[in-house]
Amino acid sequence: MLTLADYGWDGERERSFSGFRADGLVPGRVVRAELGRCDLVTETEVVSALVGTSWGAGERLTPCTGDWVAVRPATAASSATVVEVLERRTAVVRSSASRTSQAQVLAANVDTVAVTVSLADPLKQGRIERLLALAWGSDATPVMVLTKADRSADPISAASEVAAIAPGVEVLVTSAATGEGMDALTAVLSGTVVLLGPSGAGKSTLGNRLLGEDRLATGSVRTSDGKGRHTTAWRELVPLPHGGVLLDTPGLRGVGLHDADEGLDKTFAEITDLARDCRFADCAHTTEPGCAVLTAIEDGHLTRRRLDSYHRLQRENAHTASRTDARLRAELERPKKQIARQARALKKFPHFKA
């Protein structure tokens, strides 16, 4: 029988849980979360629990798959209830799909983020960079997993292309159909592993290979547009036979960045390193003199596409932050207001010089 330790419970968490135990609560880990209810594994069983309000705060809880929670056990008169979400050590977070300022936690307390990309389709470097920023920003360890190598004309060349835009990340070529690369992948996966990628990347098929059984639903890619179908309808935590647990996620059609400064710095590590040699500390790497990043482009050590992608994701991240940070929003709006004032002055006084 599996224990909480098999799901990642350790001595540090046990020590921090003493106050909850004194109140009659027990620890559990969310294996599947739904609105107002979640399935979780406890020290003695797998239970379905209601989601209550935060312990002493009165705020509605929003547990995510992978969360550790404090649970009030069921009684003859009441169901088991989650009363607190414990502090998350890591979290994969994206901007809400609704494009609001809210963040959406995709997975909590993960150790390895396996960014899955299909070699059956043309590589999209911008999408890979976006997913890597999400993975690095989680504080977990990213691994690039290139799937469906059996359907690629030149998987080695593709791996080299991905490695060039994934500094510091191990890149593995795999095929769930033939077993290629599966031993190497198993060796680098540790703790709680989340599979992250677009629909059709082969996440569920890869997950079944790791699990040693067809437990996760799989489906084919649409022939009309080459896009994958959402065969995984929810996030679920499943124990792995070699140790650790696997978290399969629905395919991501959109990946909005949220508070991704650190993730972008690591994703574009070569640009971050070059920036240290720029003449100006606040160099934007656009037209400034003495810019080490622009010099690297001129010398052929950095591609313009790479810098453009970095700038684009930085702007998106800053815009997302501005929707929740009034001060930053004011800073972003100030240049627009200055231009508007100057335009009005020129109309009123044609000889006015800004």
UniProtKB/TrEMBL annotation:
Binds 1 zinc ion per subunit. InterPro entries: G_CP_dom (IPR030378), P-loop_NTPase (IPR027417), Ribosome_biogen_GTPase_RsgA (IPR004881), RsgA_GTPase_dom (IPR010914). Keywords: Cytoplasm, GTP-binding, Hydrolase, Metal-binding, Nucleotide-binding, Ribosome biogenesis, RNA-binding, rRNA-binding, Zinc. Its cofactor is Zn(2+). Residues 100-255 form the CP-type G domain. It is found in: Cytoplasm. Transmembrane segments: none annotated. Zn(2+) binds at residues 278, 283, 285, 291. Its EC number is 3.6.1.-. It comes from Citricoccus zhacaiensis. It is an enzyme of class 3 (hydrolase). GTP binds at residues 147-150, 197-205. This is Small ribosomal subunit biogenesis GTPase RsgA.
